[in-house]
Amino acid sequence: MHHALQIQEILLNIFGHSSATPDLPALARTCRAFKEPALDLLWEELADPSPLARCLPEVSHHSQIHRQRDKPTKRYSFRKSLTQIEWDILRSYTRRIRSLLDDGNILDWESVSIFLSPPTTEPLFPNLRHLHARRLTETKIKYLLYMPFPSLMSLDLSFTFTKREYPNSLQGSFELFFKFSPNIKRLRIFLSQPDIMFSNFFSTYICRWQSLETLDYFNITLDVDALAHLSRMPALSQLSCTPSATSPPAPLSFSNLHHLTLRSVFLYPISQFLSRTRLPAITDFSAYIECCPSKQCLYSFFASVQASAIGHTIEELQFEEGLGMQDGGEVTYVLGFEDLQPCTAFSNLRRIYLDLGWDVGLSDSELLTLALAWPHLEHLLINVEWGWNTPGGITPNGLLQLLQTCPSLSEIGLAIDTQGYTEFRESRASLGLIMSPTFSMDVLDSLIEDESVPAMAAFLAGISPCPNFSFRAHQSIWFTEERPDHEARWYDAYNRANVALSQSS
Questions:
Q1: Can you give the pTM of this predicted structure?
Q2: What are the tens digits of pLDDT across the range 355-386?
Q3: Which of 226, 330, 387, 457 is positioned for an S-S bond with 496, CB 3.0–4.6 A?
Q4: How far is CA 495 from CA 158, 472, 490, 499, 505, in A?
Q5: What distances in angstroms separate CA 488 from CA 400, 449, 461, 466, one per listed residue?
Q6: Which residue blocks in 147-216 are alpha helix, DSSP H?
Q7: Rounded distance, CA 346 to CA 312, Å?
């Protein structure tokens, strides 16, 4: 054997390019030199903990079929407490694991309690870097947090229910966890529903970690003290949470934060947070709300975005409303140019995704004015899910001007007004468009009549980079009447365009 094949780093590099996992056991059985690096890669990532049960002798475990959501799944159980020899076998594999996912359904609870209670204080997973645990119960999370993970850097916990006394009962477990796993850099905690006690609990304990780079709290509200602590973390580059409705007593500054996602029932807490926070390095900002905002709320939001200094660096802006109640009463608002005009100050935008429960009323000239402010725009999507809820939209000629103004566009989601559009007079060569090969077009809830189908087919063939480009037409969530004829006509135009593109290529 060549001396190079006796160097573990070289073997790990070679074996890492193996396209099939079954190759790794075969390599481990080939010779002693191959065994360790092949086993290291084989056990590096576990999608579930069942291999840890199956690596023991058959007399130590058994399995049975468990049905979850009508899907049969094998659930493993230990037949008895593990002997020292069996623990030694386990440790020979667990020391290799770098990433572990536990969805709570592969091992039964008795086996989990055995598994999480090793006979010594020596870490069972000394080299684990990433842990993702789902469907956590109170008992299981307490056992899990008592385990030492000295090398853990990424923790992802999902709680599927809440309980009033739950956070208080976890206090001791978390105290030990902070001691045993002090180097967490990425933390994600998901709650199935908001809970004030959980929010207070995690707001308090987040201050124990000093090296966080990524923090993702879903359905957890961070109080002003927690936000102030995070603002002093120089390594924090990504933050996702629900901000407190209480305004910080002093302005905050996140000097190195690049990605920010804020969630709230109403838009006001998000605007309040932005108005008191400096974010000079943000490139990606997303806001998710549940209740439809009023005109004044949206205006205040964009004013707060500008005040936070995001506008100088932001490249991606996403604003999305869920299916909530109206924040401003039963009034139906129309999203117009004056509402989006503040966004023209964001000259570095590459992606815009706006989706809220308003109708949309934008003309060709207004959209073109907006686009001129975004010369690097690659993705433009407006009310993709809610729809424009209008018989009009952007005309084909207006869309053509948009594509010529923003040559980098690779994804659009706009309503198209085809009324009276019966002829496409341009040739593909004369347009001079060089579209992205991944070009994607969504015409949302646009209407189209039979007489416009041939012209739109020619238009699509003229602007499309290749046959079978991504195309979508659908109803908005507000329409109660099905309009299958319009969808069918749009897909008829799309299919005709593909035929023309195929014949010309």
A1: 0.85
A2: 998 999 999 999 999 999 999 999 999 999 89
A3: 457
A4: 44, 12, 9, 6, 15
A5: 23, 10, 18, 21
A6: 166-169, 171-180, 196-205
A7: 6
